[in-house]
Each structure stands twice: as C-alpha cells, then as structure tokens.
Recover the amino acids of this structure.
C-alpha cells in the first residue's frame, strides 16, 4: 500500500497525456487508439486522454452490446461528445453460439464464472480484430482499484497494448475525468456487471471509497471488509503477474 498524499489531478492528467503521446511515438506513430466504450468512467476517461494526446481523428470508439443494451445511448453520447468515430459490434449472437457449442461439447452447462467472463473475452477479441484492421493499438481501461481485488477478466478487459489508468484508483480516475471536463453523466455512471443487474460495489460487498482509502492510506473502518479486500488481493494477484514459465538453462 502507498502512503496517503494529495493527488494533483491536473498534473497527473498532463503527465498521462504526454505518456500516451510518447508511447505512440515509439509503438505506432501513425496508428490509432482503439477504445472499448461502455459509457462509464474508465472508458470515457481513457478515450478523452487519447483524444487529448493524439487528436480525435486517431481515436476509434468500439461499442459492443450483448444483444439489447439499455444504456447503449450513453456510449454513443460519449463518442459524440469527444467527436470520435465509433464502430458498433453486437456480440450477442456470438456469445450465444459459442456458449451453445461449448455446452454441447462439454455435455454440461457452463459455470457461472464462464458465463460472466466469456463476453469480456469476446469483446477483447473484437477490439483486436478492429485494431489489426484499422492500424490500431488497443487501450486497456482497467483501474488500480479493480485490479487490486481482481474485479476484471484475464484476457478480457485486463488485456490491451497500453494502460493509462492502471496506477489510478477509482477516486483518482474521476478526478482526471473532471480535469478533462467530462460531463458527470460519464464520470458518475454506476457500473453494473451486465448479468445480475447488480452494481460493482454490490457484487464486491464494499464501496470503492473504502477500497481506495485502504489502498492509498492503509486504513479502513470495517474489519470484515479489510479481511475481504486482503483475501481478494491475495487470490487475484496472479492476474497481474507474467505467466509462470519453466526456465531451461541448458
């Protein structure tokens, strides 16, 4: 855990924009940023940072509803607000077809965790297909708070070519969003898992405010929540580490 300190949002925003620009200079001078757009704070802030670093003509927003998505208009409005081009790819039938094929081959229903993670992995495959067709680089949109407790899908939303927010907590991401003058509609949109209808905080069992304070300052009032956060961090740390490999020294 890091020591609590004042967060200089304007300076961090400036530094992140410069970092994105430098990264693209080294890893794709003529390429475009490909951002999966949910309309929530993370994808909104990442897209806005990329626009500031590269210009709106070099950012593509990819909307990937799974069938009918009640809040898809929020994603459309974010793209319109930033003035970036958008691509809509509905993954609903793909998820259904692959789920049916898997269940037929396995002779059983997919586990609940497979049902939750499969769409995220199909979305990432979609982003890379768009990226390789449009000379792009895929933006990772995860933040430190979600990564800390493993609230993300390995080879799904955890993947990407560059990651602007993975060192920032939820609280800090929102502050960056305000520096970028994003409307509250995008910064404060309640994230839901898309399956149970529950919010992220309802699924986790604690608030991001608690989690962020614990990460940055090492303090939390609820002992049960502390234990849960520590256990989730311990169990999910492997997701952020390189794949273990057998080392042959011959």
């Amino acid at each position: 855990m890091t020591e609590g300190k004042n967060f200089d949002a304007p300076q961090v925003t400036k530094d992140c924009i410069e970092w994105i620009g430098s990264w693209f200079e080294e890893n794709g001078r003529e390429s475009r940023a490909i951002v999966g757009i949910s309309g929530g704070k993370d994808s909104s802030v990442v897209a806005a940072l990329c626009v500031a670093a590269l210009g709106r003509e070099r950012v593509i927003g990819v909307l990937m509803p799974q069938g009918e998505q009640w809040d898809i208009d929020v994603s459309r409005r974010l793209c319109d607000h930033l003035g970036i081009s958008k691509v809509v790819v509905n993954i609903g039938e793909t998820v259904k077809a692959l789920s049916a094929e898997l269940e037929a081959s396995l002779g059983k229903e997919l586990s609940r965790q497979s049902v939750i993670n499969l769409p995220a992995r199909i979305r990432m495959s979609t982003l890379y297909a768009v990226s390789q067709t449009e000379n792009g680089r895929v933006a990772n949109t995860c933040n430190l708070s979600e990564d800390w407790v493993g609230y993300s899908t390995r080879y799904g939303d955890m993947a990407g070519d560059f990651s602007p927010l993975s060192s920032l907590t939820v609280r800090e991401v929102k502050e960056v969003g305000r520096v970028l003058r994003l409307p509250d509609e995008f910064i404060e949109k309640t994230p839901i898992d898309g399956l149970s209808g529950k919010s992220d905080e309802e699924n986790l069992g604690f608030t991001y405010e608690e989690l962020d304070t614990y990460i940055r300052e090492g303090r939390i009032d609820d002992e049960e929540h502390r234990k849960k956060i520590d256990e989730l961090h311990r169990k999910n740390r492997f997701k952020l580490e390189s794949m273990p490999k057998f080392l042959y020294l011959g």
